Prior knowledge:
By secondary structure, the protein is an alpha/beta fold. The protein is built from 14 helices and 13 strands.
Amino acid sequence: MSPSRAPKNRAAPRVVLATRLFAPEVSAGAFRLRALTRSLIGRSATVRVLTTTPPSTAPQGTDEQPGLEISRFPVLRDAGGNVRGYVQYLSYDIPLVFRLLVSRYDLAVAEAPPTTGIVVAAISALRRRPYAYYAADVWTDGVAAIGAPRFVVSVIRWLEGLTMRHASTVLSISDEVTDRIIEFGVDPARIATVGNGIDTEVFTPDGEAANDGTKYFVYTGTMSEWQGAEVFIRALPLVREHVPDVRLRFFGQGSAEAQLRVLAAQTAPDAITFGGVVPPEQSAEWIRGAVGALVSIAPGLGYDFARPTKTYAAAACGTPVVFAGSDASSGAALVREHGLGIHASFTPESVAAAMLELLGEHETALATEKRRDRAAWIEANASLRAVGDAAADAVLRPLG
């Protein structure tokens, strides 16, 4: 499955994008891919997105524009409406084989998981077309972090490595992820570190802010085992000893959501709410109105290199982040080095101290100044528009 070259000098390269999630579904991956799609079209490409039929709970709306075709196909989802799990992935990947075979394209782009990547790699090799793989994170690390059997980890590692080694371009979201990709034997010359970002037209300090009459902290996005969001629930009683009316609000979904709900009911049932998946615009309103946004990476699970997108979303709204994780984690460094909030150790006591510090400076003149600075830094350094442009340039390069 060595990379092939498509005919050069096409006025309008035909790109096919294989992804189980795309707008209007709400996820960091869907946002990144929409930005990539728009940048590809801005470079005169036409894009066909092979994705899934969204669940009824997804926000309404389409992403139609000239040069874009979105092809949707039903897929199995778990009880929470997610395409997550081996059977769910295969329900997308098996039909993808036939969908790719009947699609005309000069270049393919595959989004994780690696099973999707290997399907795109195989069909692209058969058709002698190059493909790119978008490595927003390293799935082998994630599978190992949740305690999957050794055999499963080995299979995912083999699939992920094979997919990335034969891609004409591998898109990475950070230097840390790039370093991990190289460990799979990928040629560094084929890796494009395009960064991570957020839609600064939606996530902005300007606009409506949610106000439910209380002071609250907000957690948005994926809730998985390796993120360890339970540390915030355990910290809340310590915070409420000093500020009795403070609350936590969770928005999003994930494999750890059920356990978090149980823990919340046992810890502070009247002070913690779960709002499910909400449209980006509504998420931004809740972030803008929060005392702080909560982000965590459980240390010691092999995921300390991650820089969660929720950090960028919060900072783009000007809201300070409480990041709970290892001192050596990339997420902690991001928050510390750019003034995006407070880094706390992964303990309820340290998290509670950070939350109390933000409560103490909330709505002060200094807090207002810091909000402007955070939003300005994100606009200059982590705009999803700039990430999409860099990714589009990288994936089109093999076409000449």
